[in-house]
Amino acid sequence: MTIVVSRRRTLAISLFAAATLAFLPAYAQTEGERLNEGDLERVVDEAIRPLKEEHNVPGMAVAITAGGERYFFSYGVASKESGQRVTEDTLFEIGSISKTFTATLAAYAAARGDLALSDKASKYWPALAGSSFDGISLLDLATYTAGGLPLQFPDGVSNVKQMAGYYQNWRPLYAAGTYRVYSNPSIGLFGYLAARSMGEPFDDLMEGELFPMLGLSSTYIRVPQDRMGDYAYGYSRKGKPIRMRPGVLASEAYGVKTSAADLIRFVEANLNSAGMDETLQRAIAATHTGYYEVGEMTQGLGWEIYPYPVDLDRLLAGNSPEIAGKPNKAVRLDPPAPPRKDMLINKTGSTNGFGAYVAFIPGKGIGVVMLANKYYPNPARVKAAHQILTALDRRRG
Questions:
Q1: What is the number of alpha carbons within 13 Å of residue 26 lying toward its C-beta?
Q2: Catalytic entry in 75, 108, 167, 182
Q3: Collapsing DSSP states into helix, strand and coil, what is residue 299?
Q4: Which residue ranges make up each domain of the chain?
Q5: Does 308 participate in catalysis according to the annotation?
Q6: What pLDDT, in 10s, does the model give residues 74-125?
Q7: Which CATH homologous superfamily contains domain 3-8+34-92+220-396?
Q8: 96 included as an active-site residue
Q9: What residues have CB less than 8 Å from 243, skipping those under 6 apart?
Q10: Three-class HEC string of 347-383
Q11: Is the bond into 335 cis (omega within 30 degrees of 0)?
């Protein structure tokens, strides 16, 4: 197996002195500290090689940020048919990690006054007037606590008109804000309504406004023709090449394609957004706010949050099928928990042919991105990332 390792140095960033950004880590102050690249390569290889082999993953891209440095590790192929190698610029589907971008866009809309999270969903789409969404807030949709919206739309909902009819006829199973049921139609509608509040189509806002503001040049909803050669093929459980087929609200819920190089840049923006547009800084901070306790996890906007240090068992419990696939009692935090340095923030994402994971620790200034062109179980992702982050913390500590 060929492993390609590269490192890119990030520029020093001065901390922005604002109360709303007090959670920013101090890693920019210690940028001169550099990890031993040989040691880091061994740490990553020990975590990734067994995972890749056990789950027969054709290709993986791993990116790490630590102390203002970026490190990239590429494994295997982006296409078994062509033999094209994975690099940090290979485009992967990131599935539900897309929800963190959706949340950032909506938080940006809130920060500039286009919406309030407490607003009722029906305020932004006349088609919802008179439905159950007269009593469901944007925050309920964002945190999957609207009352039991399902994981996916039922068969037969394939366009906006059918989507409107589905929402008009839907009836909640639970009172809003009492149970968390992980749902693409829930956070997807959140993103759709946020875009309506801003007066432009969601895809255009993401590709024309949010991604450029974040400094992301290889992140797309719609991969352009001249980048299709960099777009990895995913592989099904039977080993067949596959790419996602977009459905209703796919863009909002699971439709982003990006590279390890861009996704680690997004992680760095979440670690320290100083120097970016001030409204965007407030939006990023808002996505780290905790709104509900759900088992071992705190639900933020898109992101899922844990106190740090966090043991592996708790992290696995928060990313378990029980949390992702079943109704769970949600305990509302009143007031919401503000962003803190001593937390681990993460999100998994999958499509039929891809599996991804992101985790970062603001107080340590470290983060990891893992992209693969085959679905493999979340526990394997969490264990590998926890192994890498633990080693990073020890070496920097």
A1: 4
A2: 182
A3: strand
A4: 3-8+34-92+220-396, 108-198
A5: no
A6: 999 999 999 999 999 999 999 999 999 999 999 999 999 999 999 999 999 9
A7: DD-peptidase/beta-lactamase superfamily (3.40.710.10)
A8: yes
A9: 93, 231, 233, 234, 353
A10: EEEEECCEEEEEEEECCCCEEEEEEECECCCHHHHHH
A11: yes
Q: Which of 71, 74, 75, 96 is catalytic?
A: 96
pTM, 2 dp: 0.92
3-state secondary structure of 237: coil
225 Cβ neighbours under 8 A, 6+ residues apart: none
Please name every residue paired with 62 in a beta bridge, in sequence order, or none if there are none.
73, 370
Per-residue pLDDT tens digits of the chain, which is 397 residues long: 334 555 443 322 222 223 333 333 333 334 435 668 889 999 999 999 999 999 999 999 999 999 889 999 999 999 999 999 999 999 999 999 999 999 999 999 999 999 999 999 999 999 999 999 999 999 999 999 999 999 999 999 999 999 999 999 999 999 999 999 999 999 999 999 999 999 999 999 999 999 999 999 999 999 999 999 999 999 999 999 999 998 999 999 999 999 999 999 999 999 999 999 999 999 999 999 999 999 999 999 999 999 999 999 999 999 999 999 999 999 999 999 999 999 999 999 999 999 999 999 999 999 999 999 999 999 999 999 999 999 999 987 6
Residues 6+ apart with CB under 8 A from 46: 387
The amino acid at 70: R
Coil, helix or strand for 155?
coil
Domain 108-198, CATH number (from 1.20.58, 1.10.4160, 3.40.50, 3.90.380): 1.20.58
How far apart, in whole angstroms, are the C-alpha atoms of residue 71 and residue 8? 6
Q: Pick the closest to residue 269 from 342, 213, 336, 194 (CA basis).
A: 213
